């Protein structure tokens, strides 16, 4: 528990109403998108960089650890409080400071919700491509910390590709600025990207300059339905081989088709083995030809149905299916474990096979939703958290999934981060020398191990 | 001088003919694209990662410093040998290991010349976008070390955006592998990009996985000629505002038009104040409309002439003009100082004005070639290296250029690196805390300061 002296000082720094210490309040900040939890001693919500500096300095003096937090939607335990810690909640630093359409840049505070930025950008004809499924809740600071992906990475890349510069309060309370309003503003080594994907363990990002792009002139959304999973995989390979670069190549299997249909009523074929959501964008003149090519490719790959969304409402329904995928499985079993293993795209069919094998070997139910164009799969293991034996089986199955992905030349985590959940598998992906580099960089920035300790690597 | 014992051991490691210690041989490795030079004790050319490991370990024991080197084309002194050092020349590690068209990936050794990769890719319908003007000589390892740009960054980004993974021999001789055949293969923090742009001071990159893209179906190259520099600047703003994303928006001023014309005979108008080389790519159907729009924009901005290249030979001539720009000025004065200051694109006109002011204030001749779409300018200061007084004036003018760029929200170096040349200006761009971060990261990887010491920061 925090002493009254500490509480008073925190209130002085961030303001009376921006300090939470009551039991119910603390509970709200004790979990994230995983099944893990941990209670902090307090929650503070700074509104300025100067307040963050003050907080860092004061809590360092008090030997209290600090846990940065965006919206807490992350899937790897990255924002779970550890012992003797205060959560630094960035929800009140949610200003869009500037949208600079001349330089294709937006300057934001870290607590801005991804979707809110999209809305403001849309008014000016612009767009911020990395929009993870959580984008209606997740913050740009959180997206940066996890180097979030999303359904449009195949064409547009991940968060890393859109961060041009940051302001960071280091664990010693000093402030650095990196980058600028230009993707070439990165002399010396790349300080911006050391922080992007670092899961908040190296410091507190307090301002972000993001690259934005003109909103695509036209978009077309298609849905292809398959009896067999292999045929959907084949379609992905064939589309890419035809030289088409869709924005989206999203895959959902039979289980997910059914669980999402309950919510979205998009008219997905409940008997189907798999669907692909395919989206392209570009100049209006190119759309028809590409849609036709894609239609033919799906037919050649035995698609049962190929549908082109005709109205905005239809597009929205299809996307609702996809965006509600994670939550939708809760109707089947009370808990689910999300994974984000990623393999080279050409190994996507083998990864699907591998998942089926893991499900069989461990006797667990797994639904699959995937960013197929990125080779990034989200096998969702369904279980009941209250059943200890089942929980152990799920952990074993998760480990097997990671091993399988590594065996296919992939990674244990494509976009959700390592956090607490995958920390134990990280050294199966990296050599001891690389693990040592991870630890040393952490130590360089945070020698006392005070900022988000215990995430990614043990010190 | 190296002792015979050391020379013998080096020959054992890399082979007899891959060790250079004679005066003439050493001289060839004593300079780079700058006017600086420094003689190494020896030059070794490893052919395998294992040999690099052996070299690092052995030279560490001998307390001899190591200077990694690609083709030595860099413009910032990054590959200049320092005292008591051996150059590790990667020219013999020049194999294209694999081109994986399914995953849009090429795996290469660091000594592969950029142009050689382009040729191999072209056979398979692929393309590697970051092609700096030096691409016929510069290596992919060197491009990675400097995070090279080039004329097509406006649409396609810089080297950083195309590096998917690397193998690195650390200064302690240990090997790490980062990334993979997927842009989402970067769990933990971004080790790949810590090395990209680090100018070879953190270790030796021995293998690179690069992202490649399908070759654009159609390209159109245009040339717009202006009486006034301002009108060319205005065109850049207007094209971007029209929502067109060209691959190229290259600018050359009156002086460069004339010096390059001597070589390329592209028919540039020798009386003109400026030209813009504009290139677009995409689907054939979109080209005519965009060319027409661009033509109208240039006319509205008072272009004297707007020309669309009609044949491959014409395209080649225009590009020859641009690619020979740096070298071409040698006819005017014996030496030139290249700069690569970069500003937010919207400040391009002010940067041009700033350059003219510097030229006037310091009484120096400056020609300007620029990646105008990136706000990345190359003011070339012409002088005679043998005249000490003039050299001092040039240094003062360079400093003024850097200051001007920072004043416009830009950076002192957009694509050439810091090396030795800009080291003294780096702390005018970064806070002391950021400078400290640079030094600490160096120390983390290279505590003995043995690999490419003295570049970017003093330790």
Automatic annotation (TrEMBL), chains A, B:
Family assignment from sequence similarity: Belongs to the FAD-binding oxidoreductase/transferase type 4 family.
A Pfam entry, by short name: FAD-oxidase_C
Keyword entries, A-Z: FAD, Flavoprotein, Oxidoreductase
Record-given protein name: FAD/FMN-dependent dehydrogenase
Domain FAD-binding PCMH-type: 36-215
Cofactor: FAD
GO molecular function, one term: oxidoreductase activity
